[in-house]
Amino acid sequence: MDILEEATIFEKAKMSHMSTSDRVVASREAKRLILAINEQYKETKDEDLMEVMKRLTIKKKKIEIRLKGKPDSGI
Residue 8, Cβ neighbours under 10 Å: how many? Predict the structure, then answer.
């Protein structure tokens, strides 16, 4: 399967009601996809690839926030 097809499937996947281990797996998958797309981007400098990487990074950050929990205000 093409890496962009995998990225599209990952983007459309529901991320609700995931266990902690599912979130860890999803975060690692997002990282793998981002790095693979980045290798293609280095060769082609295609802006569409950059947009896909940005969207995956946003989704990855949301997953990681749920893993780590929201930071306290420190008061």
Answer: 13
Other Cβ atoms closer than 10 A to 10? 18
Closest CA to 52 of 64, 68, 40: 40
Q: How far apart are CA 13 and CA 73, in angstroms?
A: 32
Q: In the chain, where are the structural domains located? A: 1-6+20-41
Q: Which of the pair, 53 or 74, is modelled with greater confidence?
A: 53
User: In whole angstroms, what is the distance from residue 55 CA to residue 74 CA?
Assistant: 31
pLDDT over 70, % of the chain = 92
Helices (H), the chain: 3-12, 20-44, 47-68
With the C-alpha atoms ordered 4, 39, 55, 59, is the resulting torsion angle positive or negative? positive
| Model-wide pTM > 0.85 | no
